[in-house]
Fold this protein.
Amino acid sequence: MIPGEYFDEDNNWVIDIQHGVYSRVVVDMIWFARNAYRHAEQTIGVSTELGKNMYASTFHYRGLQYFHDMIAARFRYKYANEIEPCLPGLLDDFTDEERVLILWNEFYPDEVKRLFLRYPELPRLIVTAAVYNNPDRRGIEAEEWIYQIINDAYPETREWRNKKLGKSGLKLKLKIGSEPVNIKIEDNMRTILEDCMREKNISLEEAMNYLISVGWKEYRLVNEVIPKKDD
């Protein structure tokens, strides 16, 4: 999980609590998806390559970070009043952190299952992203579809982030291959680049080069490539 605001007056102290249990929650989400995929196989009586590999392979959850973070933001928005720190003496038997974790642990399983019903392809995509880690093309394409689905599920959150960051694509001069070019980064790739910058504490250009180095194709990051004119 990469901390960051997803709406006005987002709760930073709750983000820190969710960050502390991030790995466990994402593993749970993968298991929900795996069980749903296994149930689908059993229902229609088929055995797939993905179904076999999801038992033999080690799960990778780095590609599900944005999926988790959007659901986590949805929780903070929906429970904004309930998760505010209480005055001393009004906590009963729970601390603020314990109360948040109880609500979060109740929320995310139901929310993931709700998304599975709305987007039937989602369990397969999550399992694919977890089994076929980047730079495997299957995993990369699954991550892209998950990104589109979660943005479709929570359009208000995405619109807020677009407004906060500016509506136009980021523009940057970057050397791709051997030639300097001007590039424009569209909104659907902006969050991935920003997360990479924050996580690694690197510049936008360094994040772009890193993503390309681990398997992202230039055409997936660049909307328009214009060769630099000679002076």
Remarks:
- The CA atoms of residues 66 and 192 lie 8 Å apart.
- Strands lie at 170-176, 179-185, 225-227.
- The chain has two domains: 12-164, 182-226.
- Residues 166-181, 222-231 have pLDDT under 50 and may be disordered.
